[in-house]
Amino acid sequence: MAQVRVGVHVSIAGSLDLAVNRAKDAGCDVFQMFSRNPRGWGYKPLLDDDCALFRQKIKTTGLLPVDHMPYLPNLASPKPEVWEKSVQTIKAELVRCGRLGIPYLVTHLGHHLGDGIAGGRARVIKAVNAALDASDNDVMLLLENTAGEKNSVGSSFEHIHAIIGGIEKTDRIGVCFDTCHAFAAGYELRTEEGLAATLAQLDSTVGTGRLKVIHVNDTKGDLGSGLDRHEHIGMGFIGDDGFRRIFHHPVFARLPLICETPVDERRDDRGNIRKVRELAA
After folding, report:
1. Distances (CA, A) of 131 to 39, 127, 149
2. Residue 43 is a catalytic residue
């Protein structure tokens, strides 16, 4: 089996191109980043020189970059002001990815805030269609599954399938599969039978061909807990044996793996990358 492609989320502190340096130093094959401050609505425009330098470093290193939407946007929000700001943000991020040469933008699908899954799903579809129409590039938007927390949109494969069904430019839509979120939402990943059943359900709804990136996270919550709390690889409820099965499954082995794991006294980013490679060997 070919070696897996694995990496982590890295900081853009200082300048965007330094994210590539940090990813390379950490031993990444792939990395995820925010192209801007993830905790606010405002952002600085990209300069041509910054884009050129980022693209050059990507070309030189051969790393695969992935962008992630900021924290504040909520594509499912029933609040008009928040929804409109969210649409403007995803439009801008798709354009920024195009200028930086980043092929994938990962987005959470948001929360409907209590007015029902159907309304939330309709707003997500409307937001995605507007964003894709406004970005004249080939950047693919990856819909990320959620953990089953209250009022969340996208915790089930059926919900994601229904959203994709309402999107016009489906050739620009893929899926980012988060192991912690799937497990927390009730999808068994630890056993051979459970993993096979989960992937069969995914394939019959969304289609495994739409999987483009995997968020590899162990979890502090048990199966079906609805708890979105990431843990070091092998130290949570999925465990070493579960991840060994995941990494050796042909569907996952072919895809880029990104750890969104803690950094603490137990293990750092390099440690989680080493752990993934160890379990995938």
Report:
1. 20, 6, 26
2. no
